[in-house]
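## tool: complex_structure
## caller: assistant
## args:
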Amino acid sequence: MHQQKKVFKEVTIDLGKVEKELEKFLRVDDPILAQTCIYLLKAGGKRMRPGFTLLSGKFFDYNFEKLLPVAMALEIIHMATLVHDDVVDASLTRRGRPTLSAAWGNSVSVATGDFLFAKALEMIVKIDNIEVSKELAKVCIQMGRGEIQQIKSSYDVDQDFKQYLYRIKRKTALLIGLCCKLGAMVSRADKRQIWILSTYGHCLGIAFQIVDDILDITADSKILGKPIGGDIRQGIMTLPMIYALKYSPDQSRIRELLHKKNKTEGEVEEAIYLIKKSGGIEKSRKIVDLYIEKGIKNLKELPDIPSRKALIELARFVAERSY
Amino acid sequence: MHQQKKVFKEVTIDLGKVEKELEKFLRVDDPILAQTCIYLLKAGGKRMRPGFTLLSGKFFDYNFEKLLPVAMALEIIHMATLVHDDVVDASLTRRGRPTLSAAWGNSVSVATGDFLFAKALEMIVKIDNIEVSKELAKVCIQMGRGEIQQIKSSYDVDQDFKQYLYRIKRKTALLIGLCCKLGAMVSRADKRQIWILSTYGHCLGIAFQIVDDILDITADSKILGKPIGGDIRQGIMTLPMIYALKYSPDQSRIRELLHKKNKTEGEVEEAIYLIKKSGGIEKSRKIVDLYIEKGIKNLKELPDIPSRKALIELARFVAERSY
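## result:
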């Protein structure tokens, strides 16, 4: 986390303000919602999304008052989708702690997510910028479609790279792309500049998700904050698995293992071993590098300010992180 | 249903258009979402909410083009909350058919509800009326709070009338109140007129929910479209139960029954018998009548047009319906 904090140093003070405003905005006198919202806020989210919005704004007419509600809406939408995703995927841990659904049950999680969506709507109304609202609505719809895709594709060992991309685009990349896009938009960037930052965020989001999926197989679970192999257990097909299914000499065994519901711990370990052995990790890392390169390629057209360096470092950090 | 159709006759043609536009707007090329959305649309919802919006508009400067997106947003929000409520309450049937969560599972239901919320957001953005958006956001937040309250209060035999009202206000009344309010607002009603229709909708919503709760105990399950006693089974404390718990000589047995999870069918039947015997139904009906009276009281200040008669008939229909 330390390294990540460093790359956001251009906007550290303002990110602190975003955090305070989020706490204030999500304060509610209902005892359960108050607790679940605090639980989510204190879960140590990286606030990467507001970070991207603010950094993107730095290149142009940076106005924190205008960026703040946009950054907040984006983070709240992110929080809401995480909560519902954990219900959909039946995930038990996130960031080293039980998920809201594990700790409070699915019903409370569904309701908390709905409350957060409603708060995001309140914030969007406050922003009162039709272009911003349109972009947010569009991405929310696509995220909803991604959620369905995630369910449909679970335990589906016949998925290909294209289907995987469709899914992680909606799960992660569109929102991070939008964070950068809106940061630029409300800071009065021109069309080309908005496109450069939007593309950066999008590519970074894809890379980020692939790394996430790699770490689920390769990481140290203590550093990762959750047991590894979660995707294997939950039947979420990730890029290393897709490559292993395609190229490994053990593909029929891998197929059998990944398709099976309720795997034993031994089977999860065997799957991890076979995926690692298949070269799927290395192939996935190459895709990460391609997206990182594509994402930062056009940044050089933007003013050479510290935020540009920060965005490039962030991209490298995303590619190389171990948690 | 026949009688209800009759009271909406002032707006039948336009309601048909709302239906068509809903079908068009919720068409999506994802096969699962396409199916779940059609399933929900064909489930025979009464489209009461768009009906209220249109009828309320009739008193003033009725402009269907302006009312349509508002009516659609309201109905879609309603659909989304129904889907998530059925997850939260683990309901198995609605309107004579399996709920989406029973038929497709909780994950698909959560995702479908999220997709619908996102579509509602898209529609709200299209409306592009800050006052309308503010009202919708406010009510969505309150509905989220109601959802949590529903969970918290389940199997809680110590609830009182006030807590019950808090809950059904958020579950039902606020949205119906808003349907009338927005119908009047976008048709350029004045403040007093908006208040009259908003109050009408709110009171009708309260009455509607109490009748729903009564019917869950007294109805013929074939006419109702779902087995009776559902609230008792799911631990949802309703007004007849609250009165029975307070006034019945069998209150300790009722307490025991209602508090128990996983009741046998015999116990559900016994609870129904004891609640009926307690006089809780009659007491609840009196509250329904009070709200109906309060709701229609000020309608006489509005122009004497067929829609006024329709609203009054609708109120009586809500009070007297058997399904």
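## assistant note: Strands of chain B lie at 93-94, 97-98. The longest strand of chain B covers residues 93-94. Handing back to user.
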